[in-house]
């Protein structure tokens, strides 16, 4: 029988006790520290923090992440939570600043991410949080109530991956500058074995064009993505082309870990 681990995730900013003390109190089995990939000069006490954690936790892992990018943090946390689906995952949203806190909290709202966000209230705050930790002590640790949100399905993320880089798929033979058509998405879905096309036989096996495939594509993939603002669908001549919006590109970055289910 697999042992359920207590996994803590914490963006690493200008804090020390707010990261270490909850880990100590809750006897974590594994800690992930999200280190800011955009800075070459982290505070000197980060090394001390890592040493302290390693003295009280069986395993500490570090992950490089752009902590100034909400979607980067969101994607990192959802990926870690997905990799520990059978464990108890706790996410510290008070250790890295406002932007990481937002990304980490949204990650815990995803209904496919069974993770609990928590906030640490320190005993006192420092005047200079760049030379020394921004706060000290632990007054209280509070679970953050979250409101469930639906993330894109695996099939939808797979289609977003194709839209992000159509030429990565050998079956895309259009002009490299032309966006994909709905027909291209259907062929890609069949080639990748996506579930929404599992019961749709190719036209050659049906004795003609499979118009039902377009309805299935619209219902299960494109309409939800369009409603969320992740794609646009525009007529170009007699065809309708599909493109990712900037919001869609960010959503793909945040949830592309779901593609692991297709491998």
From TrEMBL:
Domain HFX-2341-like N-terminal positions: 6-125
Source species of the chain: Natrialba swarupiae
Protein known as: Uncharacterized protein
Domain of life: Archaea
Domain called DUF6293: residue spans: 144-255
């Amino acid at each position: 029988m697999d042992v359920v681990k207590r996994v803590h995730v914490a963006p690493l900013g200008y804090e020390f006790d707010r990261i270490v003390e909850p880990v100590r109190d809750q006897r974590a089995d594994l800690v992930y520290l999200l280190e800011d990939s955009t800075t070459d000069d982290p505070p000197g006490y980060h090394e001390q923090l890592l040493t302290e954690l390693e003295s009280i936790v069986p395993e500490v892992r570090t992950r490089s992440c752009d902590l100034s990018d909400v979607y980067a943090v969101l994607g990192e946390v959802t990926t870690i939570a997905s990799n520990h689906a059978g464990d108890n995952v706790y996410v510290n949203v008070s250790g890295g600043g406002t932007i990481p806190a937002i990304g980490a909290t949204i990650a815990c709202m995803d209904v496919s991410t069974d993770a609990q966000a928590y906030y640490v209230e320190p005993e006192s705050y420092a005047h200079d949080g760049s030379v020394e930790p921004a706060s000290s002590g632990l007054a209280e640790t509070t679970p953050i109530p979250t409101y469930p949100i639906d993330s894109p399905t695996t099939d939808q993320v797979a289609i977003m991956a194709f839209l992000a880089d159509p030429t990565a798929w050998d079956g895309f033979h259009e002009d490299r500058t032309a966006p994909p058509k709905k027909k291209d998405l259907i062929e890609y879905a069949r080639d990748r074995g996506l579930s929404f096309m599992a019961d749709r036989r190719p036209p050659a096996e049906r004795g003609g064009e499979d118009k039902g495939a377009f309805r299935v594509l619209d219902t299960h993939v494109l309409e939800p993505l369009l409603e969320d603002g992740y794609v646009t669908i525009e007529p170009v001549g007699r065809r309708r082309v599909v493109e990712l919006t900037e919001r869609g590109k960010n959503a793909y970055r945040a949830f592309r870990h779901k593609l692991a289910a297709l491998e």
